[in-house]
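Example 3.2
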Amino acid sequence: MTNFFLTPRFFQAVALLAAGFVVAFFLPWLLGPMQIALGLIVMLVLLDALLLYAPTKGQTAPVFGRRVMGEKLANGSENDIQLYIENHYRFPIQTETIDEIPHQFQRRDVLFRASIKPGETQIINYQLRPVKRGEYEFGAVNIYAASPLGLVRRRFRYDQNKVVPVYPSFLQMRQYELLAIHNRLTEVGVKRIRRVGHSQEFEQIRPYVAGDDPRSINWKATARRAGTGTDDALVVNHFQDERAQQVYCLIDKGRVMRMPFDGLSLLDYAINATLVVSNIALLKHDKAGLLTFSNRPGATLAADRRPGHLLKLLEILYRQKTKYLETDFELLYATVRARIKQRSLLILFTNFETLHGMQRQLPYLRRLAKDHLLLVIFFENTELREYLDAPATTTEDVYNQTIAEKFAQEKRQIVLELQRYGIYSLLTAPKDLTVNTINKYLEFKARGMI
């Protein structure tokens, strides 16, 4: 019976019996009581097995379990998993539940203990954070049930061999989407940016309310309303954001994007940020597009904002993988020139470790910036920063930190070099990528640059 297991309590009882029989060898009067105890243990084990394996009413399983989760998981986010366990026995049971999670998580601690009364349902909640996109295979939900005697356990298995895809973090996208709808993006670090001038389209004239910019008052319309004796005669011009601007995310898939931070590669950080920023752009009535590249052309999605466009973007991002070769920026320039005819905001996700490495690509970046509004985003090495902030206790530490500071300084020099040629840049920690990218996009919108 592959579902029949003996519990630690049984082995403890057997160990005590063995010790008792050893003592009885020297004290013969103890042999009788020990034989009675042995018989009692055998009877209790049989009774326990009978309780667990006796048929239940309606031919239903004595213990039912299931795993409840989404049809797909979000990469880099904490995904909620629920286990439901129902007790159909007439007595309370003690359960140990082991969920066979995919091997990619490298976890062996997904074990939960619970006490469930007759007819009750126990809900177990836990979370999983995948760090790679692709298909993940879940094994069975194993429930080991024991009666109040606790000498025998019966195993029940449910939801075996379920395959779930891991997509770019749509959970993060929904979080930012809800905050944007309710104008609460400042809660996650998005800055409230003051608009410069009227870089917006005129929409309508409406009555003045407290808090409106006095510079928006339409004095001619106000004078006409005052002549009619209308109360609250002040009216203002109402503007809306300029719409239907193109926002393209350009994602470098070369070897520089393979570097992992907190388990997630730079490519996956860029993919998650692309999904969120594209969704924010669609909410702002702009068009979102995508272009990936490495040493050869990658996926391209023309900027659009029709229904279903975000789903197309999600499916393309799901299939992207890093390459092992160096990125060809000349190919990027040729692709952008051939595919993107209208002036657009280009958000380029890449990584430069040295000033010389950036300077080799600078001619192509300058050409892109000539025809489009280019934002180059690259990454701060946060582990290097932690090492620099740690106290130096030996001469070797001082030497190593000096070398590390040289690399950190080169990152800052890259920012200054790009600014010298009028190219906008953003040096950010990987974990802050999404928030900082949204801030830059909203800043460009507020300044009327796109």
